[in-house]
Amino acid sequence: MEYLDIHKKAKRKKGLEMLLGSDWELETAGGSTGEAFSARDGERKLFLKCNSSPFLAVLSAEGIVPKLLWTKRLTNGDVITAQQWISGRKLKHSEMKQPEVASLLGRIHRSPELLDMLKRIETEVKTPEVLLRRLYTYSLPMEREAPILFKALAFLESWKSTVYPEQFVVCHCDVNHNNWIMDEKEGLFLVDWDGASVADPALDLSILLYWYVPQTEWGEWLEAYTFELSNDLLRRMHWYAVLHTVEWLLSEGDHEDDEHLNGWLSYLDALVGKNLA
């Protein structure tokens, strides 16, 4: 399998070299999928992605991702998108509290253009039932972490009917600080939209607020997002915080050291112990 992956990546890179011409130098641009590259020709530089979602075009038009320059299809069927290269940096943990982050996320969640386009591509709305059902596709461990995970799953089941929003919106679904890029002119972009879904805005808000913003500052942060903190939003965010933590433990927890894993289990236990009423 590993040999096939390496062979596929090599063929993809060769196809890009033929598409761009010999003047361009290609390098992988992070990640293990082999689908993202940087291309340089002197002072010119591009960010290339294989098989990006058609959603990228409307994200570019809205100024949420770096400008889309062109889209081309290779002879093997791969669709290549080229975006303007941004000389910028990822946001630090502490910078996620900035009102600019809240403002951009609020604009995304309220955009009818984004919602209309994503609904054409992603037909399944990620309701609480759908997301909870996805958790059961993971193999549940039979070790020390199993009791708290079963307790958390029971918590999610018991509260799922109470956490429906008034409206489902476009959610990025992975708003961690590594996906927020600030360019040299302090323009802000949210990148890596491969996992975007139509879902409750609390799905994004729970990750951002629980992981990056002190609870005493949630109200102020949501003012920049242009939404008022309410008991209903608190309940929904709490439910999604439990969901995200369970999913992380099921998908990634076995790769961490015992101390880190125990910290996440304690965090989950504390979350589940809180009353949502």
What does it look like?
InterPro entries: Aminoglycoside_PTrfase, CcrZ_PhaseVar_Mediator, Kinase-like_dom_sf. This is Thiamine kinase. Residues 55-239 form the Aminoglycoside phosphotransferase domain. One of its GO terms (molecular function) is kinase activity. This protein has 277 residues and is of the alpha+beta class. The chain has 2 domains: 2-85, Phosphorylase Kinase, domain 1 (2-Layer Sandwich); 90-272, Aminoglycoside 3'-phosphotransferase, Chain: A, domain 2 (Alpha-Beta Complex). Helices cover 45% and strands 17% of the residues. The chain contains 10 helices and 11 strands. The strands form 3 sheets. It has a 5-stranded antiparallel beta sheet with strand order 1-2-3-5-4, sandwiched between helices. Strands 6-9-10 form a 3-stranded antiparallel beta sheet, covered by helices on one side. Strands 7-11-8 form a 3-stranded mixed beta sheet, sandwiched between helices. The chain is globular and about 60 Å long. The chain starts with a helix and ends in a 5-residue tail after the last helix. The relative contact order is 0.12. The mean pLDDT is 88.
